[in-house]
C-alpha cells in the first residue's frame, strides 16, 4: 500500500491546523464554558457567581417543563426524521424511473434546500395562517377548525411538516446518489426471475441503500435536535402552551430570555450528552445491520 509523503515534517500539521483551530474555538472552548457554567449560579449581569455543583442538573431533571420539552423533542425528532427520509426516498425512486427530463426534476427537488431555515418556517406559517393562509382556507371549507396558534396538536403538525419539507431535498440528493450506485444488472436479473417492483425494492434496492440510510439517520437526528430551532422560533415560538418547545428551544428561552444562565448551561450539557448517546447507540446497534458492499 502506498503511503503519502510530505516534503516537510511540519506540512501535515499546518494543513490540519485551520480545522483544529475552528474546532477549538467554536466547539471545545464553548463546550468547556458550558460545563463550567453548569456548575455555577450566576447573576444575569455577571456580577456574582456561586459554585453549586450538580444542583442545576438536579433542578433541571426534576423540572416538569424540561420533562415536557424532552417529550416534545422525542415526538418532533422522530416524525421529522421519518417523514423527511421516507418522502425523499419515494421521490428519489420515482425520479430514477423517468426517461425524459430526469435532470430537471432532480434540480427542482433540490432547490428547497437552499431556503434558510427561518424562511422555511415563515413560508409554512404564511401558507397555513388561520386568517389568510392559502392552504388554511381548504381546511376551513371541509370543517376543520384550523388554528395552530391556539391548538397545540396542530402547531406540532405544522412545525413537523415545515422541518421535514426543509430536509427532504438534502435526503433526496443522497438517496439519488445511492440509487445510481446500485448495479442495474441486479435489478434486471430479478425482473427476469419474475420479481415485481415492490419485491425488487425491498430485497435488492433498500438493502443496498443501507449505508446511505444509516448516514442520513444520524444526520437527520442531529438536524431535528438542533437545526430546527429557526423553524420553531419563526412559526410557534415554542407555543401554544409549550406544545412545541423542544430542548434546544428551552435552552434559548431559559438562557437568553429568562437569563437563567446556570440552568440553561446545564440543559445544554444534558442535550449534548443525549446527542452523543444517541449517535453512539446508532453506531453500536443499528450499524450492525448495515452491509457495505
Keywords:
293 residues; mainly alpha; MetI-like fold; two-stranded antiparallel ribbon; sn-glycerol-3-phosphate transport system permease protein UgpA; MetI-like; cell inner membrane; transmembrane helix
Please provide a written account of the structure.
With 293 residues, this protein is mainly alpha-helical. The protein has one domain: Orthogonal Bundle (MetI-like fold). It is 70% helix and 2% strand. It has a two-stranded antiparallel sheet.
Instruction: Name the CATH class.
Output: Mainly Alpha
The number of distinct structural domains comes to: 1
Strand line-up in the sheet with most strands: 1-2
CATH architecture: Orthogonal Bundle
- Cα-to-Cα separation, first versus last residue: 21 Å
Described by the principal axes of the CA atoms, the overall outline is globular
Determine the fraction of residues in helical runs and give it as a percent range.
55-70%
- Secondary-structure element order, N to C: HEEHHHHHHHHHHHH
Tell me the structural class: mainly alpha
Low-confidence stretches: none
Radius of gyration: 23 Å
Pfam family, one: BPD_transp_1
Main location: membrane
Domain ABC transmembrane type-1: 70-282
InterPro entries: MetI-like, MetI-like_sf, UgpAE/MalFG_permease
Brief rundown of the structure:
The protein is mostly helical and 293 residues long.
